[in-house]
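Consider the following assembly input.
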Amino acid sequence: MVNVWGEYDREMSEEQKLLKESLLSWAEKNLNAERVIKMNQQGYPFPGDVIKGLADLGIIMGVVPPEHGGAGLSWRDQALIADIIGYIDPSIATAAGLMAVETGWGFTIDRYASEEVREKYVKPAIEGKKIIGIASTEPQGGSDVAGIRSTGRKEGDEWILNGEKTFISGVYECKEMGGGYWVIARTEKADKPHKELTSFFVPIDSEGLEITEAYRDAGRGSLSTAGFVMHDVRVHESYILGERGKGFYQTMEGFDNARLLIGASACGVTRRVLEEAGKYVSEREIFGHKLAQYEGISFEFADFYANLEMLKCTYQHVADMQDIRYKEEGMPVRTGRAKTYKPQEIAKWIAILKWKAPHLAKDAADRAMHWLGAAGYTDEYILETAWRGVMSYCVGAEGGENIQKIVIARESLGDVAKPY
Amino acid sequence: MLQNPIEHLSVEQKNSKIIVCIKQVPDTQEIKIDPETGTLIREGVPSILNPFDEYALNLAIEIRDRFRNNSEVVALSMGPSQAAEALRKCLAIGADSAILLSDRAFAGADTYATSYTLAKAIKKLGPASLILCGYEALDGNTAQVGPETARLLGLPAICYVERVEALDGGEITCKRESEEGYELLKSPVPALITCMTTSSFEPKLPGVREIMAARRKKLEVWSLEDLGGSKDEYGLRGSLTRVTKTYTPDIKRKGVRFEGKEGVKELISALRGII
Amino acid sequence: MTDAKEIWVFVELTSAGIRQVSLQLLAKARALEINNRVAALVPGGNEDVLKELSKHGAEKIYVVEGLDGYKLDTYTEVIAECIKKYNPHIVLFGATHIGRELAPSVASSLRLGLTADCTDLSMQVDNLIQTRPAFGGNIIADISCKTFPQMATVRPNVFSAKEFDGEAEIIREKVNAPKSIFEVIEEIKAQGEHRSIEDARIVISGGRGLKRKEDFEMLEMLASSLGGAVGCSRPIVEKGWMPKSAQVGQSGKTISPDLYIAIGVSGSVQHQAGIKSAKKIVAINSDPNAPIFDIADYALVGDLYEIVPAMIEELKGEKNDRA
């Protein structure tokens, strides 16, 4: 008996238990290990039936308030969903596409979008009919958001955007299904570079928007990663998200929301990896003993499990902070100020989670493959798929490790640690 | 001539109830035996909605939505307070309301006492056009509660139903499994139907919205006081059978072991004489 | 034998004659340790049927005349009337589709205790001890009725039919059966594509170890080279890969073939409950600790996708050698 959920099932509310049951039953038929591995090997586009199926279960942008077409879930609920999604698809493609991009960023888009953008893009995305996401990184870099080079200039009631975005998740899925991206551009003249940015919602089929070739990456194969170039792309001013000059802060908010869900998903990946490998080492015998009887394996297992339990507590804590923050700021639109926690404080905890959780999942998959030997290196087991996939959230995607460390150092060591 | 059934239900066609009897059961696939003590390990065994009851519920919802829009699907269960979980799931799947029959006096019921309690509750619920239940429960496997309840209510029972083919006028036509295959059986309504899952059955999976909506639906708990009568009619005391002994089966055989593809030859020769 | 107690066996008739379980129950009723007189309760039935029943242990036969084809409501009324009139000590039914709906219907009409799906019966003075598996076969319970007549349904194939000497006394019971409220519109015989696993001498079963529905063709091939039938475990029926009629186990069929080969079946207790009276059990599984090996006479540990084709090859070779 390998128990990777611990006492979680007992902690869950009746509703959370029902939802977990629905998700796992749905996955058994529609997104089982065999399918995840095959999807990963076949490459993008991410299958529409998976998007539709999960949308029908109401988990995409579940945190969006009901008056905007969401389910009004708490971040605590949504984080649990992300954990289960990571467990179901440890290649992390589903978590990247539907939790980080659609839910973390989609929620933030909804918060700042005009009625028109909401009706035309956010609501259909909640229903699994369109894709919306984030396009932040540019060819010269992504970590330094304040240094973004894309520009926007106003002409009448329109904005004209120019620049190039790259390493964007889901571009080809978005092209196929329709939708668009949150684009940050330099629009203002101010004393500090991060006050010069404005966020726009740019439909994927805008005139002058040219999609670039998709990358072939190590392991998130079933979701496309590509970019686009904007040559005088025109959007109406109602496509501004929030206020002019506030783009940097909104983007940081979006990153936090996406990072939280990725952290929770990575916990799910660790869960799946430990379960799969745990079963193997409990059954496999060598020199007359089960593999699990060797401390070289059981102690490593215990180490990963202990870290998993700690990170679960961390994401629950972060999710609770988010719930308090959004309650105080007001939902669905911002009407007040967060009092209990400063945004930087939440950002620090989220950075801890985003740094540690994918790392744990990657290390667990790595060691688990060692326990299984050659078998673990093949697609007979889901370990190598998990190992390659979760790496994407170690090296980058909503901020690489070093970016998280900068945030943590700034909040603990003080401003002296700021490299910017 | 026969013992008085509780009373006929009225043949209401519109605005009436479809009652689904459900049971929360331990997932018997997950039950293990302690090899040392030979006793059941119940800890950690998940409780599930009996799959045949889940099918019955899906069928009831389909009937509500396909044949008569005004009827209300009521999920009914007898069990300990934690069985409310299974009823909550029924509400999320699409039942309109739910009743849990829960009282210490109901505990230890055999199939007759269970049927008696359900029949009393069904009677109290008022006019129903159909009563559906799974043909048997995973833990008991008796398949008796359906037909016994029907008899106590004086209703026709149609057992092992896979599909409802038609429901019009005062009649229902069901496709039901028989020993040799299937039969199409027509019966007047109200009637009690016990359901058998079809292999193509895809249960409705409640999503976030349905689960949140279920929280707002009515789930009542009825006790002995609500059903009336004396303690002696219910539970262990109202049962007509008694369990005198339980023990774990011992069916172990000492096996000869062969390994892998190489073992095939040895196996085939060991089986010579049988094959 | 004035104070002999009557044990009744409800006899189920099919177009092909008497259902086997009815004869099995007559033999078991005769073997119960009580001063008994075994009676068959048969709806209609020609001379051949009565002769069969007499030969298989019925000492008395109540022939109920005036009943048409089987309908739950009319049979319930008539059998309940007969029980009230003659007050037998025990009434037994086969746990068939008919038995499992008719017995509870009769029992609840008369407010009598009833035990379902017994796998053994014995006497403790006047009390019938009814043994049955519970919790999906994980435990066995002994149950007795608080009311008389004592009633039980009994699983097919747990007892064997036997032949006895003597001539049964025939009692003809004429009834005016009420008209049934049911109408059978159509009877559909199951597709003949699957040989019945209950009658087969060799049964080959597939479980969760099989990855695809198509892989059952491999089992069919093995079955045809052995002259056996193909069955399966519960998860396979749940996936819709095989019909319910092919399911072996507690919630499926209890079978007692000469040879049972379980392929990729882990062997949950409820699966084991369906095969424990098989004469020889072979289990093929890649998990050396699969519970199925606990009840196997021959255990073959390995990958079924290698082993099954090798078995088919080997059997082909044997056949050629003999030819």
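The domain at 17-245 of chain B is CATH 3.40.50.620 (Rossmann fold). Ask yourself how this observation constrains the way the partners meet.
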